[in-house]
From TrEMBL:
Residues 187-245 form the Signal transduction histidine kinase subgroup 3 dimerisation and phosphoacceptor domain. This is Signal transduction histidine kinase subgroup 3 dimerisation and phosphoacceptor domain-containing protein. Residues 377-402 are annotated as: Disordered. The chain crosses the membrane at residues 46-65, 86-112, 118-135, 142-165. Keywords: Kinase, Membrane, Transferase, Transmembrane, Transmembrane helix, Two-component regulatory system. It comes from Cryptosporangium japonicum. InterPro entries: HATPase_C_sf, Sensor_HK_TwoCompSys, Sig_transdc_His_kin_sub3_dim/P. Signal peptide: none annotated.
Length: 402
């Protein structure tokens, strides 16, 4: 059965509904045709009941087959389901001339059998259709009989296309979720490597200095003091590096994070517009990189965007990062913004502020404003209002649109 979730794409829902409607319509046509033929005294009541039961079996097997494909299962069960549909639909066609069930069997064969095997199954179904129609010919014009195999083929291919669309959309959604999780896992792995390298290097240096100091303790106090002083400096430097690593600043620069975001969006087919100014302060640069990383991850994990705009700009004595995307999925899950809560804490440490809200048009906007001081002097306080909201491209790095 189809599993609904807040990340289910509208196209996937439409494809699921389309499959169910088409299968139900074909089932009703088959049952109705059998009933009409019984009223014309071409079928007996037991034969009509057999046709109806077999039609329900074919429809149920097809829906089960579509569900297994949706879950990515490719076992022996789908082969059995396909052949049940083929045999049952041929029996129904032979007893009551209900071609709709054969269209379901054709769609199932196209899903299960591939290559030459698939072409062979499709050819056998079409040949069986024509043969049964010729055997049951009752004076109906030849053109009408030829139209039935063509209708079976078109209906089967249409149902196959809608079912395959559902499978592809489901795989795309699952792939996007896996990529978002992979980015988080990759970040964790990178931090663990950095932590290992940092502590390993620092501890080895401290151990060597300590051994040297112990050897010189009884023979040369001055050199022993120098070793201990150097050891203290190593410990202080290691503490500072460890604090920088674990307190939150990203280990990737803003430029690298923007390039990574653009590459990821391009891979997913999401249109992205990036415009950024140069950030001279290293702490602010790393914090903005963390903001971009978190917002991009949330955009892909909690929405279905088709476009995203990322802007890093100067406004008066502050630097403002803005990330806007569409494809917002309504949700009452308050825990979905835990990452943004961490960003708020880190921005507040620099006396900044964060705004995250849904806006009109199914969009979500995150705005981070940080009081900014350049490498040597603060940003101009008398900036003209006309330029306060514009994006200043980097020198030598124009705004990127893709």
């Amino acid at each position: 059965m189809f599993r609904w979730s807040r990340s289910t794409a509208p196209g996937e829902v439409a494809a699921v509904v389309g499959v169910w409607l088409l299968v139900t319509l074909m089932l009703f046509l088959s049952v109705g045709q059998a009933g009409a033929q019984r009223l014309q005294e071409n079928l007996t009541v037991p034969v009509e009941a057999i046709c109806d039961v077999l039609s329900v079996v074919v429809a149920g097997c097809y829906l089960r087959l579509a569900t297994l494909f949706d879950r990515g299962l490719r076992g022996r069960e789908i082969q059995v389901l396909m052949w049940i549909q083929v045999v049952a639909s041929l029996v129904v066609l032979g007893l009551g001339s209900a071609w709709t069930m054969l269209a379901l069997a054709l769609a199932a064969a196209l899903l299960v059998a591939v290559g030459r095997r698939g072409l062979l199954v499709v050819a056998l179904l079409c040949a069986a259709d024509v043969a049964l129609l010729l055997v049951k010919s009752d004076g109906t014009p030849v053109a009408a009989w030829l139209a039935i195999p063509a209708t079976v083929f078109v209906a089967g291919c249409g149902l196959y296309a809608v079912t395959w669309l559902r499978i592809v959309l489901h795989e795309l959604r699952r792939t996007r979720e896996e990529m978002a999780r992979a980015r988080v896992d990759e970040e964790r792995l990178r931090i663990s490597r950095e932590l290992h390298d940092l502590l390993g290097r620092t501890l080895v240096a401290v151990s060597l200095r300590n051994e040297a100091a112990l050897r010189l303790l009884d023979s040369d106090l001055e050199r022993c003091r120098a070793q201990l002083t150097a050891l203290r400096s190593l410990v202080i430097d290691g503490q500072a590096r460890l604090r920088s690593l674990t307190s939150g600043p990203a280990l990737i620069s803003l430029d690298d994070e923007l390039a990574s975001a653009r590459e990821l969006f391009d891979l997913l087919g999401v249109r992205v517009e990036i415009a950024a100014v140069e950030v001279e302060d290293r702490v602010v640069d790393q914090l903005l990189a963390a903001v971009v990383r978190e917002t991009v991850t949330n955009t892909l994990k909690h929405g279905r965007p088709t476009w995203c705009r990322i802007g890093i700009q100067r406004q008066s004595a502050a630097i403002v990062a803005t990330v806007v995307n569409n494809g917002v999925v309504p949700s009452s899950d308050d825990g979905a913004h835990t990452g943004l809560d961490g960003i708020r804490v880190r921005v507040a440490a620099l006396h900044g502020e964060v705004s995250a809200e849904a806006v009109a048009g199914g969009q979500f906007r995150v705005v981070v404003r940080i009081p900014y001081v350049g490498a040597d002097s603060p940003l101009p306080q008398d900036e003209e209002p006309a330029r306060a909201g514009t994006t200043e491209p980097l020198a030598g790095r124009p705004a990127v649109r893709s």
